[in-house]
Write a sequence for this structure.
């Protein structure tokens, strides 16, 4: 099954650039061994609790320090893309929060990431291409003024690079900050798709507000069902809306927001036929890749090869790209299925 998961053409819709740096990439960027160990420290914890989630966010400072020049932002972006390509990801929506650095401002940061995406050449020797799009993030810890300035910049850059920038995300520590609905209404009015980190921790009022906004997708969706920190009213609303969920198994288990793999809320999504996709979140921080996430899904929830293929195939409908791209991806998936299933 591990080989099958590796060979399966996959769709990645929730991958943070600065959380996806491999050890090899961090070394390339000049990180010392101690910094690399700190970046991956969550993998060494013997026990996790919901409070472990708070320990995740300081780790990103290591990635930010390593990518504080345009050259290193470019190198990191290309390295992360190559890692996903080598894992047989055929469509990637990479996400990142624009920021300032030693020799760049937020706009230049976006320009640099986009240049790395557009310049990417297939270094692995494979003939298959990978489609790469960008989701830009707003940190929930920022105040309304900062967030307003950020969405104005994102809208401006989308106008300049509509073929690359496809959506906007609300990210950051869910125990801090808030959801400014008006910011995302403005994004939607300007043609951006919306995904929100939602219900990563128990916060029923905010989750209901997000549901009423009706984002195109949500990230994690951990605390919705009553058995997982949500409540009956939220679950009823969610079943009615059927908003697709970006599921990140290893991330949730390591951060302590899920009680082990068997106790992951994805089993309720499967049982109730709620649309979802499998994602890595921060593959470098959590020492995983998308093939591993599919293998874990199969191992802990009894899914066979056809089940996994169907999840990949149905994930195509969840991407923030055109119907034409969706048709092409479905052809890729169908051709692969015909060659690999009797």
């Amino acid at each position: 099954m591990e080989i099958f998961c590796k060979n399966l053409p996959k769709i990645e819709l929730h991958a943070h650039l600065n959380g996806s740096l491999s050890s090899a990439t961090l070394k390339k960027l000049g990180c010392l061994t101690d910094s690399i160990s700190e970046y991956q420290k969550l993998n060494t914890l013997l026990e996790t609790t919901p409070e472990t989630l708070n320990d995740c966010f300081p780790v990103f400072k290591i990635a930010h320090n390593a990518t504080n020049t345009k050259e290193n932002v470019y190198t990191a972006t290309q390295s992360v893309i190559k890692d996903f390509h080598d894992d047989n990801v055929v469509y990637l929506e990479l996400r990142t929060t624009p920021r300032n650095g030693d020799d760049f401002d937020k706009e230049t940061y976006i320009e640099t990431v986009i240049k790395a995406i557009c310049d990417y050449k297939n270094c692995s020797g494979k003939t298959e291409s990978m489609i790469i799009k960008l989701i830009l993030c707003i940190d929930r810890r920022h105040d309304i003024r900062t967030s307003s300035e950020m969405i104005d910049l994102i809208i401006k850059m989308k106008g300049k690079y509509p073929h690359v920038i496809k959506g906007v995300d609300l990210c950051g520590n869910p125990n801090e900050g808030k959801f400014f609905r008006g910011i995302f209404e403005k994004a939607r009015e300007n043609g951006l798709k919306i995904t929100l980190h939602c219900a990563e921790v128990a916060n029923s009022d905010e989750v209901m507000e997000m549901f009423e906004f009706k984002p195109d997708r949500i990230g994690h969706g951990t605390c919705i069902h009553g058995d997982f920190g949500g409540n009956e009213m939220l679950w009823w609303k969610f079943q009615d809306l059927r908003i697709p969920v970006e599921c990140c198994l290893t991330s949730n288990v390591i951060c302590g927001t899920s009680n082990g793999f068997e106790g992951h809320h994805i089993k309720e999504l499967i049982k109730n036929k709620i649309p979802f996709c499998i994602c890595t979140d921060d593959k470098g921080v959590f020492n995983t890749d998308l093939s591993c996430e599919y293998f874990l899904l199969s191992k802990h929830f009894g899914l066979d090869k056809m089940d996994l293929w169907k999840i990949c195939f149905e994930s195509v409908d969840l991407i923030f790209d055109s119907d034409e791209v969706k048709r092409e991806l479905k052809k890729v998936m169908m051709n692969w299925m015909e060659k690999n299933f009797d």
Summary: The first strand starts at residue 10 and ends at 16. Residues 122-127 have pLDDT under 50 and may be disordered.
